[in-house]
Structure formats: structure tokens, C-alpha cells
Amino acid sequence: MWQGARSIFIQTENTPNVDAQKFLPNQQILPEGLQSSFLEYLSPRSTVAPPHPSPLAARLLNIDGITSIFYGSDFITVTKASDASWAHVKPEVFSLITEAVTSGEQIVHTVENKLEEAGQEGGEQDTLGYDENDSEVVGMIKELLETRIRPSIQEDGGDIEFRGFHNGKVLLKLRGACRTCDSSTVTLKNGIENMLMHYIEEVKGVTQVLDQEEEIALQEFAKFEEKLKQQKGPEAIASTIGKGSLDTANG
After folding, report:
1. Backbone angles phi, psi at 21, to 5 degrees
2. Which of 93, 169, 176, 191 supports an S-S bond with 158, CB 3.0-4.6 Å?
3. Are β-strands 169-176 and 205-208 bridged in parallel, bridged antiparallel, or unpaired?
């Protein structure tokens, strides 16, 4: 019996982060049974380490200029260095993803983690999931984040982690395209913080949890923004965001 070749259609989308692009290969990316809603690979080592190595992520991170790979349930977000050009790296990224999907290879493997090494970000558990030990307030925070916030962040090629609630402050970490985006602070303050404070009176604010790389990235963007302002005036800032001109800007 003749069977037609499998039709592969990979859609690409821009994200609020000019250095991140979202690829939708029209198939499930994360393995069945994974408790988390994402996996993130930030180094070559993470792509081969347990518990969830990924040959595709390894090949993508091997492209000069690519800095991180993020897997959502049915999409892949690829982030590049700010001095790399999409015109140069995107064709190879697209080719590798198409090749992997067409061949039917398993995107993510699950292997025994004998040394309990945390090779990838995410994967262990969904931080927005139900926990019987959560207080009523934390339960409400998670519910709002899960139903009202997470869908829009995933639409932008990222995800969100709940890291705690202390002294009225909700601790959150953004992932994927949102992780090193210059608008991430605005997203937290104007969107998430306002909504949580509106519905839950115990919430007094939101704090973004940053790792060292993210702090450096935000500091560098602030320096670039100030330099641009001095060169061209305040109007220059608004005119560059979202138009891709940051791709080729000199630091």
C-alpha cells in the first residue's frame, strides 16, 4: 500500500525579543510524561547531560552565534547573540529543525540521571502546579499565573516559573524568549504585577529572579540605550525596539 511522504510545514514567528525566534514544527516537542511545561538548554554540556539530552539542541547550539535553545510543548525558541545576524544563522537553524522533524528523530531523550545532575533548566516539575502544602494565597497566585499569564508568555516563545512568595513579593523567573529580553522587566511590572495586585490584596509587588548572564545582558542593554540616547536623542530608543535594528548595532 502506497503512503505519501509526510508533509512538513514549519512556521516561524518573531518574538518581543529581537534576538529570539519561535519555530513551530506542527508536532509535539516535549516528551510524554514530562512534569514541566518547558526545557531550556543554555550550554553545549546541557544538551548531552541527563536527564533530557537533545541531539537537535546540540546541533543548534553548535551554530556560531546561537546562545540558547528553549523547548515548549509544541514550539522551539532559538536565541542568538546580539552581534549575530538572523540573515546568517536562521537558514541553518531552519534546515536543522526541518531535518530533525522530517526524519522523525526523537527531539528529547529521557535517560537515567544517576548523578542527579541538573543538565537542563526545567523538566523536574511545573512550578505552577498544585502543591498541597501551598497556602491559599500561593494557590491563587499560581492559578492566575497559569490561566491568565502563562498563555501569553508562551505565545511570545517563553514561559514563566514561580520561585516563591515572601513578604508580599512574588518571585518569578522568565524563560525562553523572555529570559534576556529588554522588555521583560516591563512585562513583569506593567502586566503581571498589576494583575496579581488587582486580584490578590496580599501581593505587594513582583520581583524578577535573574541569573548572572541575565543581569549582564540587562546591564549591557541599559548601557546601549544610554549611548543611543546621547547620540540621537530620546526618540531614538522607541524607534529601534521591535524593528530588528538592534541585530546589527555596535556595542
Report:
1. -125, 145
2. 176
3. parallel
**Distance from the Cα of residue 205 to its chain's centroid:** 22
Beta carbons of 176 and 20 less than 8 angstroms apart: yes
A 10 A CB-CB count for 69 gives 25
C-alpha cell at 19: 534576538
Instruction: Give the sheet arrangement for strand 169-176, strand by strand.
Output: 158-166, 169-176, 205-208
Q: Is 175 exposed, middle or buried (0-12, 13-18, 19+ CB in 10 A)?
A: buried
Euclidean distance between CA atoms 4 and 25, whole angstroms: 19
Q: Is 100 helix (H, G, I), strand (E, B) or coil?
A: helix
